[in-house]
From TrEMBL:
This is GntR family transcriptional regulator. PANTHER family: MANNOSYL-D-GLYCERATE TRANSPORT/METABOLISM SYSTEM REPRESSOR MNGR-RELATED (PTHR44846), TRANSCRIPTIONAL REGULATOR OF 2-AMINOETHYLPHOSPHONATE DEGRADATION OPERONS-RELATED (PTHR44846:SF7). InterPro entries: Bact_HTH_transcr_reg, Chorismate_lyase_/UTRA_dom_sf, Tscrpt_reg_HTH_GntR, UTRA, WH-like_DNA-bd_sf, WH_DNA-bd_sf. Signal peptide: none annotated. Keywords: DNA-binding, Transcription, Transcription regulation. PROSITE patterns: HTH_GNTR (PS50949). Residues 5-73 form the HTH gntR-type domain. SUPFAM superfamilies: Chorismate lyase-like, Winged helix' DNA-binding domain.
Length: 236
């Protein structure tokens, strides 16, 4: 081990002890790097590497232009269930919030959305983008596609209802998950900015295909979760 590696490891141990002492609570903001370096007697470059090492262990996370924060408790997420993010978060004693970024009709869409037009051809799809947060920290970005010929006016129904509620209440359809895919990715800048991240931030991509009772795909969700924010599990 080089002396530089040893110095970084010592700095990381100092930071780790500081975090374990609970001086900053989960979700809380750390002092600026300058202040933290002065408090712990660590040089700036060494401190930065130690912070990056702790980030890779999911003990802290960054928000672009806002600084470092202590990692919150992970959200237990079972993607195959139809329960809304709000309901699942409340059941875990969390404080969820969410918002839409854009709701529109698009004539160009990614290949992943192609199954939506296989049963009911359409030249356009609804595209809905948004985010979800826990205790005020945004933890995921989502992009959802729906065929407007299958569910005309869907985007107008979303103001006060979840996706599953709109399907059930407005279109009398119960949806089930027909396909799930998971992939580790690095977020593009235009995606990560919506949840306070920086270009290339590691994330977990979840692709979900929802089908109606006839097996036709009616909704496709693409979710990008901050890697330190979620634990995934599947009920068998």
């Amino acid at each position: 081990m080089t002396s530089n590696q040893s110095t970084v490891e010592n700095a990381k141990e100092k930071l780790d002890r500081w975090l374990k002492d609970g001086i900053t609570t989960p979700g809380g903001k750390l002092p600026s790097e300058r202040e933290l370096g002065e408090l712990l007697g660590i040089k700036r470059m060494t401190l930065r590497q130690a912070l990056l090492n702790l980030e890779s262990e999911s003990k802290i996370f960054r928000k672009d232009r806002k600084g470092w924060f202590v990692t919150q408790a992970r959200f237990n997420y079972s993607p195959e269930l139809s329960a809304s993010f709000q309901r699942a978060a409340l059941e875990q004693g969390r404080e969820p919030s969410w918002g839409f970024i854009e709701k529109s009709r698009v004539s160009q869409y990614p290949d992943v959305a192609a199954p939506l037009v296989s049963a009911t051809p359409s030249d356009e799809l609804y595209r809905i983008t948004g985010w979800g947060a826990l205790e005020g920290h945004k933890v995921f970005y989502h992009e959802t596609f729906i065929n407007p010929k299958v569910a005309p006016g869907f985007i107008e129904q979303l103001e006060s209802q979840s996706f599953s509620s709109v399907w059930e209440n407005e279109y009398k359809k119960e949806t089930v998950i027909k396909k799930l895919a998971f992939k580790p990715v690095r977020m593009a800048g235009d995606i990560s900015k919506f949840i306070g991240g920086s270009t290339g931030m590691p994330a977990i991509l979840i692709e979900k295909h929802r089908a109606d009772s006839d097996g036709n795909i009616v909704q496709i969700d693409i979710e990008y979760w901050r890697f330190e924010a979620v634990d995934l599990f599947i009920n068998l």
